Amino acid sequence: MAMTDVERQKRRRDRLKAEKLTPLLVKGKSGEFDPRIRVALALKELANQKELSHSMIDKIATTAMEVFPNTTIIQKKYIRKLVLDYLNTEECNA
Amino acid sequence: MNNTAIFDADLNPLLEIASNEDLEILVEYLNQKISETLSVNDAYKAHTPNHSKYADLIAKEIREMGGNSFANAYRGEGPSYHEIVCDVAKKLKAPFNEKKSVEDIENTILEIILTQTLDSMSESEREELLKEIGGKAGFTKGGAGTAAFITIFRAGGFKSYQLTVIIANQIAKIILGHGLKFAAGASLTRAMSILTGPIGMTITALWTLVDLAGPSYKVTIPSVIHIAMLRKKLGALECSGCNAVIPDTTAKFCSECGEAV
Questions:
Q1: What's the Cα-to-Cα distance from B73 to each of A3, B67, B96, rounded to whole Å?
Q2: Domain extent for B109
Q3: How close does chain A come to B235, measured CA to CA in Å?
Q4: How far off is chain A from B4, nearest CA to CA, in Å?
Q5: Is residue B187 part of a domain?
Q6: Chain B contact for A6, CB < 8 A?
Q7: Minimal Cα–Cα distance from A27 to chain B, Å?
Q8: Looking at this predicted complex, what is its ipTM?
Q9: What pLDDT, in 10s, does the model give residues B149-191?
Q10: Which pTM value belongs to this model?
Q11: pLDDT tens sequence across A29-48
Q12: Is B64 within a domain?
């Protein structure tokens, strides 16, 4: 039987909620950390210690934009902003 | 930005990369409603007019404006932005498919406003407008004239962006009493002056359809149109030489200064 509008909306909301709440698995079954998390935290640490130059941070942000293909320009700009915010040492030190 | 955990993939990324100037109009639309909760938020009080610091709260507020207060309380958030855009399209009687992307539905909304505006323009006004946005005069009579503009709009590129800015600017002028700050560029000003009257009449006619009860269409309709304009602006390439907006994402060179994109 065809779904009613209410059922369709509920299914869509549930799907969106599920997408939003999907946890990022940072630990494996035996408790080991995902190496990608280590890389991200290491970069953050270096940025906090001002070991990364502005040009290097810019290069990381620009590369992050292109890591996954088929993203729109808006998504790319958003990813760049997220990465720059994450590695923004001034904000971290404040 | 961590003012709220509420996130919408169709809205948050766009608002979070927007400038303070881009967000200013949205904040003004929201502040018009007595029921808004943005201005009582601590992040708003601390950072205003630096709107980009609380873009996530603006997104949340827009979504809440699009839903019934009781339903929002039950859901814990407003309806999805996709649902709000569909509601606005329905209200404006724009033909749309729910399964299409937000961008497609936004374009349908802009098209219906453009069609109604063009229908209320005289043939000479249409000819003048076509000339101002860089088109060649010719198909400006009756339905063929409207179809010619819709074709220009659907083709994308700078002319389509120009028409969108004109619509968003005119709506801001009518509702807020002032237009968009960045829209005062020389290439847009002339075309805007031609569309001022007809768009004004179209929007006034649309306003009479808007109910005062239910979702706050007085906020959601102008917000959706402004966001559609922002999607075109921020989704476009930008010339590193002259900062011109290049909506054609396949362009290799800037149409303004000729520099490689």
A1: 25, 10, 29
A2: 12-236
A3: 5
A4: 13
A5: yes
A6: no
A7: 23
A8: 0.79
A9: 788 778 777 777 878 888 888 888 878 888 887 665 545 656 6
A10: 0.81
A11: 777 877 888 898 899 999 99
A12: yes
Residue entry with tokens 């088109």: B135
Residues with Cβ within 8 Å of B209's Cβ and at least 6 positions away in sequence, in order, are B91, B92
Among A10, A11, A68, A73, pick the best mutation site for testing chain B contact (most B Cβ within 10 A). A73
Listing DSSP states for B177-188 in one string gives SS--SGGG-HHH
Q: Is residue B103 part of a domain?
A: yes
Report pLDDT digits (tens) over B103-138: 999 999 999 888 888 887 777 777 777 777 666 656
Segment B59-83, tens digit of pLDDT? 999 998 888 778 877 877 889 999 9
Question: With b meaning 16 or more CB within 10 Å and e meaning fewer, what string describes A60-92?
Answer: bbeebbeeeeeeeebbbbbbbbbbbebbebeee
Q: How many domains does chain B have?
A: 1
- Find the DSSP H helices in chain B: 12-16, 20-31, 42-47, 55-65, 69-75, 81-91, 102-119, 123-132, 142-154, 157-176, 186-209, 217-234
Residues B168 and B178: their CA atoms lie apart, in Å, by 11
- pLDDT at B197 exceeding the cut of 90: no
Contact B224, B85 (CB under 8 A): yes
Contact present, B168 and B180 (Cβ < 8 Å): yes
Instruction: Write out the two tokens for B162.
Output: 């120009």
Position B21 in a domain: yes
Enter the DSSP assignment of B35. T
Q: Which of A9, A16, A73 sits opposite B249 (nearest CB)?
A: A73
Contact assessment for residue B50 and residue B6, using Cβ atoms and an 8 Å cutoff: no
**Nearest-CA residue of chain B relative to A71?**
B235
